[in-house]
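1st attempt posting a full record on here, be nice pls
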Amino acid sequence: MKRRFLLCTMGATVLSTGSRAQEKPVVAYLAARSPGTDAHLLAAFLEGLKEAGYVDGQNVTVNVHWADSRYERLPVLAKELAESRPAVLVAVGANQAGLAAKAATQSIPVVFGIGADPVDLGLVRDLARPEANLTGTTLLTQLLDAKRVELLREMVPGAKSIAILINPTNPGAAEQLKAAQAAADALGFSQTVLRTTTEAEIDRAFAALDSAPVDALVVAVDSFLIGQRARIVAAAAARKLPAMYPSREFVDVGGLASYAPRWVDMYRIIGTYAGRILKGARPSDLPVQRPTTFELVVNLRTARTLGVTLPPIILNRADETID
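the predicted structure (as C-alpha cells):
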C-alpha cells in the first residue's frame, strides 16, 4: 500500500511538473492609444519578439490591452495587469504608460516605450544601467521638437510666425515647449502656443487661428496628438497651413512633412527586449535604447495642394517623398 501510494504521488508530481513546463509565459502589452492608430506598432513589437525566438500563441501568450487614449485609465490597467503576474509587462504609447507601469510593480520586469527622457521622468536612474526592474526605449523628444522648428524654417523660409501645438498634460510637455520656443526665438519666429487635451480643444485652437493666423505649424510629440492626427492634418489643410509633424503617420494621412525616428524600429527593439527578458536577462542589464537614425518624410501632393514650393534643401534632405 505504501509503495503504491508513493508511486501514485510520484506520478502526480511528474504530471504536475510537466503541465507547468508546457505553460506558456505571458507578456502583458499595455498600449496608451488604440488599435485603429497603433496596430502597425503592435505588429512591429511582435516581429521583435519573434526575432528573439517567441511567437504569440506558440511559445508565448501576448495579452494586449488598449487604453484608447484615455490616459486616466492607465494606472488602473497597469495595476490589474501587474496583479495577473505576467512574465513581462510592456508599457508603450505614452509617457504616462511608463509611469503607470513603474507605479504598479517593483518586481515584474517592465519594458517601456516613451517619448521623454526616462531619467527626467524618474523611470530609471541611468540610461546605460537602468537598475531595478525597468528598461525600454526613449525618443528624447525635447531634442527633436527643436529640430522640427529648424526644419520648418527651411521648409517655409518666408514664414514669420508659427503655432506650436502641444498637450500640456503630457509629463514631458514643459521641456518640449521650452525646447521648441528656444529654437523659434533663435530663428526669429513669433509664436502662438496651442494647448489641447481634447478633440473639442483641438477644434477651438485651430478656429482661433482664423482670427489670428500664423504662417506655419509645428506639432509636438504626444500620444494624444498622434491619435488625433487625421483631425489635426485636416484642420491644418483647411487653413492652408504648412506643418511639421512628429511622426510619419501624420504624413501618411496627408500631412506635409515629418521628422522623427522610425517608430516601428523602436517597437521592434521593445519586442526583442521582452524576448531577452523571457530568456533570463534582467532589465538592469539592458540599456535604455535611443534612436540612432531619423527620417524626414515629405508629402509632395500635399505641398502642391497647399501651394507650398519646397526648397531644394528640403527635397535633397528628404529620406522619403510621397506623391
